[in-house]
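It is worth pausing here to work through a concrete case rather than discussing structure prediction in the abstract. The textbook approach is simple: state the sequence, then state the predicted structure, then interpret. We follow exactly that order.
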Amino acid sequence: MKRFLILTALMAASATPVLAQTYPPYQPPYAAYPGGAPAAIADQHRYENDRLRNQAEANAAFARQLQTETQLRRLEIEAARQPTLTPAPQARPTTP
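Step two, the predicted structure:
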């Protein structure tokens, strides 16, 4: 019986903090955002457009860099080639 009372007291003591917790009042999304939900969504779109624009600019710069490197490498390869020697035209023997 004594054990039962101790267990009951422990269970009651451990359940008390759980019961004391309260949930915060419901706030709709973006309620704290100045301008409300439409302004928040517009800002998200603007940030995403800026991110995509920056990514496109970075990709274009990288493509230009690769193109320049490719042209340089091609010129180096062409300059390193052995020139092909064309045989000199043979002189025709003159017949008297």
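Step three, interpretation. The chain has a mean pLDDT of 84. Residues 27 and 89 are 94 Å apart (CA to CA).
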